[in-house]
Amino acid sequence: MNVTFKFLLSLVVSVFCLSLSSCELLQPVGNINIKPIALLGEGRGKASLSSHGGVRITAYVTGWVKAPAKILIDQSYPNLPGKLQNAKWVPSIAYAIHHPEYGVVIMDAGLQKGECDYGLRPFYWVPCRNDAGTDLVSQLIRSKVAGEDIIHIIPSHFHGDHISGLGALLAYSDADVLLTQASLDELSSPLRAFSGVPSKMIRKDMKVSVIDSKMLEDPILGPSFDVFSDGSLLLFATPGHSAGHLSALVKTNKNQFLLSFDASHIKENIQLGIPSGASSSPEQARDSLQKLRAIMERFDGVKIIYGHEPSQWACVNQSIDLDILPATC
Ligand SMILES: [Zn+2]
């Protein structure tokens, strides 16, 4: 969207909102307390991948959302298979990454407990379904991950299916939220609703650290941030679906995982080279898909976990250690 169009859109919606009793667009996101980023391992013994062998990842299926076809894959490409032209129920996943020395990092917060439909009527609306006890905090409690065990919360981006449970997670844990400057800009913008950021899912004080100044340029990953300073969890920029979007490369004892998040919603994004039809920048979204492909070629045996590929989760009830996630059900 160009600036003039955004301004006009903002004006029209603000007038529209003022005519309603409440409007999400006009609600503040809460206090954002920005603190400098500190690297783990600074000032004390640094963890070493050779001594601990890798992290452990638990994936939590927090519920399912009905995603329009155009969100999953750009519908303007010719000859799209028919099965990609319909809305799909897709899982909303959150991850706990357990480091043997430092604690737990949470990536994405999944769907909140109870009623979880969300959106900005009349512009968009996302139906969802969940079961009692499938929200992230309930599952963390059952997994015996205490709030104080969590050292960082890292949303891949701030769309509703990734941060619906963030408010509850921030109430459960005092951990810093790590993000990119581009995500912080999206979150702070009065036009955030048009970038798919639902204000009411945050509206809580957050301690935020921006990782950009500590990102190093990697020939394949591009700008990347080594969360544990030992190579076991690398975040890297995959803009396009949202401007500040992050994907991750994770090493466990047994495997290396590429968590694409929404840089590739479903397997066909990568297989066909077609990104989401909902993007902050279609060019960047295509470049990010290329980057994911290059990583898969470079890191032999790396297993990709897509943002919302239903077939990867068809036989997972609620949670699973990624090392034992079956390739097919
Ligand atoms: Zn998503």
Description:
The protein has 329 residues and is an alpha/beta fold. The protein has one domain (27-38, 53-312): 4-Layer Sandwich (Metallo-beta-lactamase, Chain A), CATH 3.60.15. It contains ten helices and 17 strands. It has helices at 3-18, 49-52, 69-72, 136-142, 160-163, 166-172, 181-188, 267-272, 282-298, 310-313; strands at residues 32-34, 56-67, 88-99, 103-107, 118-120, 124-126, 128-129, 150-154, 176-179, 206-210, 216-218, 222-226, 233-237, 246-251, 256-261, 303-306, 319-321. The strands form three sheets. Strands 1, 2, 3, 4, 7, 8, 9, 10 and 17 form a nine-stranded mixed β-sheet that branches. A six-stranded mixed β-sheet has the order 11-12-13-14-15-16, covered by helices on one side. A hairpin with a 3-residue loop joins strand 3 and strand 4 (103-107). The longest helix is centred in the C-terminal third of the chain and has 17 residues, at 282-298. It is globular and about 55 Å long. The mean pLDDT is 90. The structure holds zinc ion. The site of zinc ion has 6 residues, from helix 5.
